[in-house]
């Protein structure tokens, strides 16, 4: 055979391999998305109940002895310690993920509060001038007043309805932000 013919065969083989790799990636992506869509909350609960029933109805002592026989030690308590430490590790990982989620929700709430404050300031600046004498804080600008001594927000007089409600000027606590994010 000539070198040109062999070279074309090699190039065609490389193209075939690249095509198969792309097909495999596409099929894997489709399988992965279908797998995730198939696990609905109801199916997860049913699978958990069934596996719990199977684990509870099987004879746990015999199962632990079988595990012990795998390690050439019958009934070794090290297996129980290993299982309990893995369970603790999984619990701490779940707590870490929950903390990260709450932190992200708090940051999102902070960003939303800042945007709301900017929008309120823009709405207040684009409207009419504030009433003479300021907004009750001795001539300070409209957005600078804050409840100083009282925790109770002041009632907004009917003439000043464009002013944002003071109870919305502060950012929500992280727990409130996380609850709000989880309800969406």
From TrEMBL:
Residues 112-121 have a biased composition (Acidic residues). Residues 142-154 have a biased composition (Low complexity). Residues 108-184 are annotated as: Disordered. Residues 159-168 have a biased composition (Basic and acidic residues). This is Protein sip-5.
